Amino acid sequence: MARFTHPRLEDVPLDLALHALADPNRLGMVARLAAAERLSCTDAAPCESIPKSTLSNHLKLLRAAGLIETTQAGREMINTLRRSEFERRFPGLLDAVLANRPA
């Protein structure tokens, strides 16, 4: 069974959160997760042509920044946005970034 590290949001520094949100691919993934309750890893991918290793790295960075939680459901890995927890730690940041992302 896969084990993922999900940090306490109190331990996540602002620069790590900003770094995770600065990449267009990761920001696209966060936007997709914000629009859905939960997504598999492949459904969260910003495009179909992204290599699995790159996708895994993006997901790892989003987990490290406290933005997502990944759980295993059978053979699938399911990602959810930790929106309320992230909002308590960094009030207004996620909404501001999502509202101002390029279309």
Quick description:
This protein has helices at residues 14-22, 24-35, 41-44, 52-64, 83-89, 93-99, and strands spanning 39-40, 68-73, 76-81. It is of the alpha+beta class and 103 residues long. It has a single domain (11-97), classed as Orthogonal Bundle (Arc Repressor Mutant, subunit A), CATH 1.10.10.10.
Q: Can you give a write-up of this model?
A:
The chain has a single domain, classed as Arc Repressor Mutant, subunit A (Orthogonal Bundle), CATH 1.10.10. The mean pLDDT is 92. The chain has six helices and three strands. Helix 1 (14-22) runs antiparallel to helix 4. The N and C termini lie far apart (37 Å). It is an alpha+beta fold and 103 residues long. InterPro entries: ArsR-like_HTH, HTH_ArsR_DNA-bd_dom, WH-like_DNA-bd_sf, WH_DNA-bd_sf. It comes from Sphingomonas desiccabilis. This is ArsR family transcriptional regulator.
Give the helices and strands, then pairings.
Layout: H1 14-22, H2 24-35, E1 39-40, H3 41-44, H4 52-64, E2 68-73, E3 76-81, H5 83-89, H6 93-99
Helix pairs in contact: 1-4
Characteristic terms for this protein:
103 residues, alpha+beta, Arc Repressor Mutant, subunit A, 3-stranded antiparallel sheet, 6 helices, 3 strands
